[in-house]
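User: I'm putting together notes for a lab meeting next week and I want to include a structural view of one of the chains we've been expressing. I don't have a solved structure, so I'd like a prediction I can at least talk through. The sequence is below, exactly as it appears in our construct file.
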Amino acid sequence: MPGLIRGIARTAAIAGTASAVNGRVQRRQAAKFAEQDAQTAAARQEAYQQQFAPPPPAPAPAAPAAPAASGGTSDMLEQLKALGDLKAQGVLTEEEFAAQKARILAG
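Assistant: Thanks for the context. Below is the predicted structure for the 107-residue chain, given as structure tokens.
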């Protein structure tokens, strides 16, 4: 009977060791694959963002020409209306609009 118990104990020790080693190998492989999956997901997300990213904003068009030396109010009004239209269309930002408006009114 002692030989049988020794054989069972030996088998249990071997099975326990194999189970522990197998568990460590599986955890290591799971961590490795999780890292690879994260890298793949990041690369896919970057490619998606590059593919569907909005185009960069177009450069602002040149500002309207300065009024002639005559400085008629009708010219100023026309220029201010044109600026307002450009701002409404989204071509000019609020800062660009304010700067051009100040330049026209000062001229």
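A couple of points you could mention at the meeting. Residues 1-53 form one domain. The chain has two domains: 1-53, 57-107.

User: Perfect, that's what I needed.
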